[in-house]
Every structure is written in structure tokens, then in C-alpha cells.
């Protein structure tokens, strides 16, 4: 997983499949950065397969806590 900040946006590149364990890691890292730096825009690029229910739960929690812009590709 690669995280970088550019043009007021946090980009997260995940090169492998996202299962429950990987989603926990992704959520901890992204939410910690958001808490520390107050970033409003996030773009997550997923290079592998992911469970849509896990991603929907992530999006729901994100919008509940932060109310920013989130794009998942």
C-alpha cells in the first residue's frame, strides 16, 4: 500500500486484494492521517479484488466521521 499527498488530496494505492484484514490496515492508516492532518479529499486506487460490502462499510464510516470527498477506483 502506498500513500502520498498531492494537490490537497490523499492518494492511496492498494496493489493487492482487499480482505477484512487488509481493510482494517487501510482504515487505520487512512483515518489516522485524516485525524492528524485534516485532509478533505481522498482517492483510493485498488489494483486487486475487493469485497464491496467491506468497501461500503468503509465509505459509510468515512462519511459519518469526516464528511469529505472520497473516490474509490
Brief account:
The protein has 73 residues and is an alpha/beta fold.
> What average pLDDT do the residues reach?
93
Beta strand %: 25-35%
What radius of gyration results from the CA coordinates? 11 Å
Number of DSSP helical runs? 2
Largest sheet: 4 strands, mixed
Separation of the first and last Cα atoms: 15 Å
Q: Helicity level, as a percent range?
A: 40-55%
Instruction: Please list the strands of the largest sheet in the order they lie side by side.
Output: 1-2-3-4
Q: Which class best fits the helix and strand makeup?
A: alpha/beta
Low-confidence runs of at least 5 consecutive residues = none
Give a written overview of the molecule.
The chain is built from 2 helices and 4 strands. The chain has a 4-stranded mixed β-sheet with strand order 1-2-3-4, covered by helices on one side. Strand 1 and strand 2 form a beta hairpin. The mean pLDDT is 93.
Question: What labels describe this entry?
Answer:
four-stranded mixed β-sheet; alpha/beta; 73 residues; 29% strand; globular
Amino acid at each position: 500500500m502506498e500513500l502520498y499527498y498531492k494537490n490537497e488530496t490523499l492518494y492511496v494505492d492498494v496493489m493487492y486484494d482487499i480482505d477484512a484484514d487488509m481493510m482494517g490496515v487501510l482504515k487505520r492508516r487512512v483515518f489516522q492521517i485524516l485525524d492528524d492532518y485534516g485532509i478533505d479529499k481522498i482517492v483510493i486506487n485498488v489494483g486487486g479484488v475487493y469485497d464491496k460490502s467491506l468497501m461500503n462499510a468503509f465509505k459509510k464510516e468515512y462519511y459519518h466521521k469526516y464528511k469529505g470527498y472520497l473516490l474509490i477506483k
